[in-house]
Amino acid sequence: MPVPNVGPQGDALGASALRRPWADVGTSVVAALEQSLQPTIDATIEAIGREVPSYAEFGSGPLATTVRRGVEIALSRLIALMGREEAALEPAVRRVYERIGAGEWANGRSLDALLAAYRTGARVAWEHMSAATLAAGAQNVEIVSLAEAIFVYIDELSAASVAGYAEAQLADVGRRESLRTRLAELIIDGAGESDTALALAEQVGWAASPEVVVVVGPGTGAHWPPLASSGEALVLDTGEERWAVVPAWVASGSSMADPARRPVAVGTAVTLANAADSLRTAVRLRRLLVTGVIGSPHNGLIRATDYLLELLVNADAASLDRLRSRLFAPLPEMSDDRRDSLLQTLLMWLLTGGDRAAAARMLHVHPQTISYRLGRLREFYGADLDNPRRRAELVTSLVATYGVPG
Q1: Radius of gyration of the chain (CA)
Q2: pTM score, two decimals?
Q3: Model pLDDT for residues 346-386, shown as the tens digit of each residue
């Protein structure tokens, strides 16, 4: 075949794609080709069934009809092109081969199998057509043109079927994703065990798990842990956030982690019917991350099971605000940094049972600094620091504000 020309801008113009080698085949050989048409069709169909495993023993069913119709249209059209400056495929013929490609995707056969069938057809057509033209006394130059015409023509048929296959594949993927999104909505709405949800799960190939976890992270376009965005997750984008319903056994695995990615919140494991509870927990957990109550973990995963205390003490926001307002009222006006250092010292002192050395280690300061700060706190709180109920309220408020060190 001729080498593609290179245009003035360096673009490959693909002269072979513009060239129509069948125009160089003399009309004198057309009669011989027409006489050999039926034997060529039969031989091509037989060879495809014998040499391409996906089409072996296709019998007399729909596949046999599709193969025979495709071969008949292809070879009849090729012979009709001989000696003419026409495009290989008219729009109607192109649609036929696009539909053949789409049908192969729908029937679960691979694109490799389809292209192998085309290659087999091109070879067998060349063998029979060249023999017929030689017997009719064709010149060598016509034989060469015939060979080029056959293989360029089959390339165009293949391209049309590849386009149809890809379009069908894309449409099917879009449809499956739509169904997966609908399934995620049903599960989160509490209908995960309904007949509709179970039928959808089977249709999209999602293995319904007795327990699921809802994972919440940043919205569309952001990085997610690999398994949270795999086929084992049912993903629902809300715009600002992305929710994923994941089987509990997947969410418990270390392969969910990815230190290089933005943190995601992993809710608690629940039954399908209670997925909304896991979602609420994950949403609250992510809010604690955003507000700084808990820090970003090294592996990008914030699991509810690791922060149950923070989730509990932050559960009732209005009551918590009132409690904090009352308990922090004794503190005088001071800078935020100064206020935080005093309150964090109070939290560590309470959590360690009054062990000043342990509190100093947790805050990375000298024990004398702890003593000084506690002296100031005694000035503000007095006997409340020894009252069991006040101490419990202080711990609750401080954990809700600063979290608990790991």
Answers
A1: 36
A2: 0.54
A3: 999 999 988 999 999 989 999 999 999 999 999 999 988 88
CA dihedral 188, 193, 199, 202 (to 10 degrees): 80
N- to C-terminal Cα distance for the chain?
70
Kind plus residue range of the DSSP H or E element containing 5: none
Distance CA 243, CA 90 (A): 47
**What b/e readout covers 225-236, taking b as 16+ CB neighbours within 10 angstroms?**
bebbbeebbbbb
| Cα(402)–Cα(406) distance, integer angstroms | 12
pLDDT tens digits, one per residue of 37-77: 899 999 998 898 888 888 876 666 677 787 888 888 889 98
The residues, any chain, with a CB within 8 Å of residue 140's CB and separated by 6 or more, are none
User: How many angstroms separate the CA atoms of 275 and 188, rounded?
Assistant: 5
- Distant-in-sequence, close-in-space partners of 121: CB < 8 Å, separation ≥ 6: 44, 47, 48, 71, 74, 154
Cβ atoms of residues 52 and 110 within 8 Å? no
Q: What are phi and psi of 236, to 5 degrees?
A: -135, 115
3-state class (DSSP) for residue 311: helix
Instruction: Describe the crossing of helices 367-381 and 356-363 by its angle, rounded to 10 degrees.
Output: 110
Q: CA-CA distance, 51 to 37, in Å (whole number)?
A: 21
